[in-house]
Amino acid sequence: MQGAAIAQPNIALIKYWGKRDLERNLPAVGSISITLRELQTRMLLDFDEALREDQLTVNDVPDQKMLPRLSACLDRVVGEDRMRAHIRSECNFPIAAGLASSASSFAALTVAAADAADKSLTRAELANLAGAASGSAARSLFGGFVELENTNDGIAVGTLTAADEWPLSVVVAITETGPKAVGSTEAMEISRKTSPFYSSWIDRQAADLDAARTAIIERDFARLARVAEHNCLKMHSVMWASRPPMVYWNAATMRCLETVRALQARDVAVFFTIDAGPQVKAVCLPEYETEVEAALRAIDGVRKTMVSGMGPGASRGTFG
Ligand code: DP6
After folding, report:
1. Residue 300 phi/psi, 5° resolution?
2. Which atom of ligand 1 is nearest the CA belonging to 33?
């Protein structure tokens, strides 16, 4: 019994931060993201009767830390009485550093598991299963601009606008390559329990989602830039005001923001967004990609840049 899949991380423009149901991993707010193309996770599953425990390698290195979450995800897709599996994951970008590696990993794992178990699940069902493992993973089942909405009992996810209908570029400035200090799951709970700004963050999300959705449908880059930057800074304000405070930024993160502001002052169509890590993602119109990449690469403390267009949702895939 084998299954393989490929999935791309997604970058949230309107962020998911906070859970309304911890056990089912349901988000407290809706979110809007773009799915990337060049950054990828490939996942190969090999169910084996002789195995007593699941085994995981990430880029050929055995990994125990992520294994319980991956095993639980396999249980949900295949059933708890399943055979144990060799799980092989390959990622072409830094893991657990705020680059949404969990989104592409769980999206790929969900699709590979359904493939191996020969389950024909709809994309909506796959998104719900991936979201139960990691909220942002639900969005990587879809390509282009993706909206995740809260429904009464769960989530509904779908593409708002396809990647080729309004292609944007993302330049990722990597300012640190190690894993982050506090993972998103734990950090969200600290925010919910301690941040004085948490409830207003939740209350104002619907307005940001509306503004971003309209901007996307109308291809209004300036409007999307304004609401995405504001939403990102609000999420980080929630974190900064938590106890203990969670500040994911470093000095180079701040220098990247200054550079994006300088580019904007020269009428370059670009905006920044930052997730639970120190990396800065600069989203721009494709014609500015080279200029934005060169400006970010030149910053002291930026170790590496990665450039990506927008891509499709997770799919079954071969593994080479
Ligand atoms: C800041 O999806 O990693 O990237 O559901 O606990 O696994 P869990 O959280 P996760 O959180 C992502 C948070 C974010 C914003 C976003 O992607 O929307």
Report:
1. -60, 125
2. 18
Question: In one letter, which amino acid is 303?
Answer: R
Average pLDDT over residues 115-129: 95
Ligand 1-lining residues (CB < 6 angstroms): 12, 15-17, 25, 31, 100, 102, 134-136, 184-185, 275-276
- What string of DSSP letters covers 101-151? HHHHHHHHHHHHHHHHTT----HHHHHHHHHHH-GGGGGGGS-SEEEEEE-
Residue nearest to atom 6 of ligand 1 (CA): 185
Cα of 67 vs centre of ligand 1, distance in Å, is 18
Q: How confident is the model at residue 319 (pLDDT cuts 50, 70, 90)?
A: low
Q: What is the largest CA-CA distance in the chain?
A: 62
Q: Which of 104, 129, 136, 201 to mutate to test the pocket of ligand 1 (most atoms within 8 A of CB)?
A: 136
The Cα 279–Cα 276 span in angstroms is 9
Ligand 1 atom, smallest distance to 103 CA? 2
Question: What is the Å distance from ligand 1's center to 174 Cα?
Answer: 18
Using left for φ > 0, alpha for ψ between -120 and 50, and beta otherwise, residue 273 falls in beta
φ and ψ at 291, to 5 degrees? -65, -45
Q: How confident is the model at residue 35 (pLDDT cuts 50, 70, 90)?
A: very high
CA-to-CA dists, residue 190 to 137, 182, 208, 267, 313, angstroms: 21, 10, 23, 39, 31
Residue 88 structure tokens: 């092989």
